[in-house]
Amino acid sequence: MIALVGDAEIAFDDIGTGLPVVFLHAFPLNRTMWDPQVGALVAECRCIPIDFRGFGESTAVGPYTIDRYADDVVGVLDTLQIERAVVVGLSMGGYVAFAMWRRHRARVRGLVLADTRAPADSAETVERRRAMIDAAEDQGSSAVANMQIAGLMGTTTRDKRPDIYDAVHRMMAQAPSGGIIGALEAMIERPDSTPTLATIDVPTLIVVGDEDVLTPAKDARIMQASLPGSRLEILQQAGHLSNVERPAAFNTVVSEFVGSLLYN
User: Fold this and answer.
1) Contact at 8 Å (CB) between 38 and 32?
2) d(C-alpha 156, C-alpha 113), whole Å
3) What is the mean pLDDT of each successive set of 10 residues along the chain, which is 264 residues long?
4) How high is the pLDDT of residue 264?
5) Domain boundaries in the chain?
6) Does residue 5 sit in helix, strand or coil?
7) Phi-psi region of 171 (alpha: psi -120 to 50; beta: other; left: phi over 0)
């Protein structure tokens, strides 16, 4: 399905009935990374995975900012006439979830922050992102996929599940280079969300893979300590894409969390 949000066409799925749950994907993937969750949760939730502008089936229309991605998500909710939703964001999707809370907190019923972090980019991370921008401009999306893939996958997945590794690499290599460059610039420019944590007063679940090297479990523990009443789940044998690498475990903790919201 397509929602016209300003000058962009934002692609999404709307599957199931019940409590609305929005899924926000990682960089540089698309909404299909959430297929294992949609398949598992559709019986109890209204599942709405969304492609950020410049990814998947959404149009590549700039300028790109984390705030604009958040506004696009709210534009989809407006199209569907949904007042409030649980927001599930992984990695870059988590950055967008923070922006949604700052800009549209009345629309957020609960948060799942998976394999993400609150602080702004370090100088080292900015340098790495700028190298990916150069690669995307000179060599295209496949070069970025080659640079990014190892960090996204845990050692267990790399060693034992080459099918997952290859599928994620293909998804990244198919991303439009314009969307990749725009997202990298958006992440570099995003604000520090650390002060946002103390303002979050909706139920929040933090999920991280124990093999995540990009946003490791120690960062998730710091985030939990700064976010009142939040719950932390560390998934074993999962890297940065914990929902793809350990889908059954991820689905279990998210399903339990969403179920708890139905009675609160």
Assistant:
1) no
2) 22
3) 91 96 98 97 96 95 94 97 98 98 98 98 96 96 94 94 94 96 98 97 98 97 95 98 98 96 75
4) 62
5) 2-118+193-261
6) strand
7) alpha
Strand partners, 10: 3
Under a CB-based contact definition with an 8 Å cutoff, are residues 114 and 89 in contact? yes
Upstream peptide bond of 216 is cis (omega within 30 degrees of 0): no
Record the tokens describing residue 142, joined without a space: 């496949």
Global model pTM greater than 0.85: yes
Cross-strand bridge partners of residue 19: 45
Peptide bond into 191 cis (omega under 30): no
Instruction: Give the tokens for residue 11.
Output: 């692609």
Burial class of residue 178 (count of CB atoms within 10 Å of its CB; 0-12, 13-18, 19+):
middle
55 is written with which tokens? 């990814």
User: Distance between CA atoms of 187 and 121, rounded to whole angstroms?
Assistant: 8
Among 233, 247, 262, 225, residue whose Cα is nearest residue 114: 233
Q: How far apart are CA 59 and CA 116, in angstroms?
A: 25
Instruction: Enter the CATH code of domain 2-118+193-261.
Output: 3.40.50.1820
The pLDDT value recorded for residue 60 is: 85
Structural tokens at position 136: 């995307």
Question: Can you give the three-state secondary structure of 136-186, one letter per residue?
Answer: HHHHCHHHHHHHHHHHHCCHHHHHHCHHHHHHHHHHHHCCCHHHHHHHHHH
